[in-house]
Amino acid sequence: MTFVLALIHLHAFPDGSSDFKLVGVFSTQRKAAEAQAATVELPGFRESPSSFWIVPVEVDATRSPLDTGPDQPPGDLHLLFQTLDHPERGELVKILGAFLSEEQAQAALSNHPGIPAGAELEVTPIDLDERTWTEGFVTVK
Description:
Elements: E1 2-12, E2 18-26, H1 29-39, E3 52-60, E4 76-86, E5 90-99, H2 102-111, E6 120-127, E7 130-131
Parallel strand pairs: 3-5
Antiparallel strand pairs: 1-2, 1-3, 2-7, 4-5, 4-6
């Protein structure tokens, strides 16, 4: 099995809602930690530095062999996200999987069981070992 590490900033607000930002997906713990160290200095992120999570995500290598070897993830992935607008907690986001190709991700999207009513599924391409958030943010409530 091959895993990648998703670096997420998930800030919980006093009203119970939360704010989800995918900072990037990384091939090693060291690269994820370096990205976290760079991102925590940015506006918005620095206001809640303990809100970072590094989450392992298994790459679906069962349908297609990895060209770069069994332990080395590819240079790009396609993430399958579930987004649900919760009336009290705001937008809830989950990473359901990481896939080697858009076709695999789309197949998983169409065959994914147990999606709550009102949830949206989305396939998003992402470059491995690159931050998706390179600037700060302001949250308005």
